């Protein structure tokens, strides 16, 4: 996965992002290494940067994301 902006994430941010992505993949029965999971990770980063900065809020936003 590549991020096109100069963003820096703390270890806590990474835990939030990974936790939400792991739960989303589990719910969707998608392998974390799949292309679909990579798209979801990119979406998760964008959502996180938009203010969805807890695992619960981020997971809810991923569930509602139209492109996933």
Automatic annotation (TrEMBL):
Annotated GO MF terms: hydrolase activity
UniProtKB keywords: Hydrolase
Protein name per its UniProtKB record: GTP cyclohydrolase I
Lineage per the UniProt record: Bacteria, Pseudomonadati, Pseudomonadota, Alphaproteobacteria, Hyphomicrobiales
């Amino acid at each position: 996965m590549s991020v096109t902006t100069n963003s820096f994430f703390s270890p806590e941010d990474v835990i939030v992002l990974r936790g939400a992505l792991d739960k989303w993949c589990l719910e969707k029965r998608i392998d974390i290494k799949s292309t679909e999971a990579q798209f979801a990770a990119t979406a998760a980063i964008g959502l996180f940067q938009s203010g969805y900065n807890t695992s619960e809020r981020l997971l809810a936003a991923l569930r509602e994301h139209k492109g996933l």
